[in-house]
Design a protein that fits this description.
The protein is α+β, with helices and mostly antiparallel strands. The protein contains 8 helices and 17 strands.
Length: 403
């Protein structure tokens, strides 16, 4: 259950992160569009046009005022830099900027950042440029311009505004976010130290790049000069939150498992153990590969077959004895003994010889008269012989003589 919830939640997280990056890209594109509109307005501004044609101090002052007002009106712009090549006049709304040998030098934190606008004069599209080195740089917007024009106009973008825009989507899952140029340098970033080691990944087409089991790199392109919005997404917070949610469920499942174990043990005690003991008593040679029910079935089948064979043998022995008795009666003369045997046969007394009661003894008594001996006149001897007819013992009994 935890695995399924994690997979489902991570898919939703990736979709939401991609949507948030897309929103940031669209918002940044919209801000650059407003800067482009400001540039169009400045190019047509009458005061800037007069300052280029009439190079008086007053016209230069009016041009500087127009530049400052446009910079203040748009929060995406930190500074507007305007240079008149005809009169060698440079106007900057906020930053100190120097122009030497075709290179603009912009002051920042005790050093100058160089920007050579001549490299972009032949571009046919607006340019988003990271001037300087990572850690000490400016993000510039340079509109496409005709190389024959006699002025240079570009914009230093407000990094604080972009940083706030990026910070708005920062969360426990999106732990790092940055605006990165085509060379892998960070222009503006939030927690960019986490993102820096992973910027060497292929970034042309954008997409999602898994880094390990818990983090992935999300890249959204489509800005000027192949700038991208890059985010580091981690599911560690998701898994921690999921574990916190399921902690009570784990406890319930644990007690359910213990209860189920006792139920299984009780059921085995009532069903499995008696069955095993019965199988051990009945089955002589148990087979490890067979179940107890199968072994008992084979044992009962064997016992039934053995009993059937025994019944057939008993029936055969009964028939043989009956034939033997009747043959002996027919061969002998009619006597009281034979009549008794006939009565026994008619009364089904022969079947009593084959009862299955234990220690059943069959006694036959024969009494006969012997002529008196001359040495002991007047004495009658009776010869009594007892025979034990049992299948379990054939030991003869001693003879006794009574007068």
């Amino acid at each position: 259950m935890r695995g399924q919830l994690s997979a489902t939640y991570l898919d939703m997280l990736n979709q939401e992160a991609g949507q948030q990056l897309e929103n940031i890209k669209n918002q940044l594109s919209a801000d650059l569009t407003t800067v482009s509109r400001v540039n169009s307005a400045l190019e047509k501004n009458i005061n800037l046009t007069l300052s280029r044609h009439i190079g008086t101090s007053w016209n230069g002052y009016l041009a500087a005022q127009e530049i400052n007002s446009y910079a203040l009106a748009n929060e995406s712009i930190q500074c507007i830099v305007y240079y008149d090549h005809i009169h060698d006049m440079l106007h900057s709304s906020e930053k100190y900027v120097d122009y030497t040998d075709g290179v603009f030098r912009i002051y920042k934190d005790g050093e100058f950042i160089s920007f050579d606008s001549r490299e972009y004069e032949d571009c046919i599209t607006n340019q988003l440029i990271l001037a300087g080195e990572e850690g000490s740089s400016y993000l510039l917007y340079y509109p496409c311009a005709d190389g024959s024009r006699d002025y240079t106009l570009f914009y230093i973008l407000n990094e604080v505004s972009i940083s706030n825009m990026l910070k708005s989507v920062l969360s426990e899952e999106i732990i790092s976010l940055a605006l990165v140029n085509s060379e892998g340098d960070i222009a503006v970033g939030i927690n960019d130290q986490l993102l820096t080691p992973h910027l060497g990944i292929a970034r042309d087409s954008g997409g999602i790049y898994p880094l390990d089991s818990q983090t992935s790199l999300h890249i959204r392109g489509g800005l000027y000069n192949d700038f991208t919005i890059t985010a580091l997404v981690s599911d560690k917070a998701v898994l921690e939150r999921l574990n916190a949610i399921l902690s009570r469920t784990y406890l319930i499942l644990f007690f359910l498992g213990i209860t189920g174990l006792f139920i299984v043990l009780f059921s085995m005690r009532r069903t499995y153990l008696p069955l095993r003991n019965l199988a051990r008593k009945i089955v002589k040679n148990p087979s490890p590969g067979q179940g107890y029910l199968e072994q008992l079935d084979l044992a009962f089948s064997a016992t039934a077959s053995e009993n059937q064979n025994l019944r057939k043998k008993i029936a055969k022995y009964r028939l043989s004895m009956q034939k033997s008795i009747f043959d002996s009666m027919l061969a002998s003369r009619q006597s009281p003994e034979s009549e008794n045997f006939v009565q026994m046969d008619n009364g089904n007394e022969i079947d009593a010889f084959f009862t299955m009661e234990p220690d059943n003894l069959i006694f036959a008594l024969r009494i006969g008269l012997i002529p008196p001996l001359t040495r002991f006149p007047g004495i009658l001897y009776a010869d009594c012989q007892r025979m034990r007819l049992s299948t379990s013992s054939t030991k003869p009994f001693p003879e006794r003589t009574h007068a």
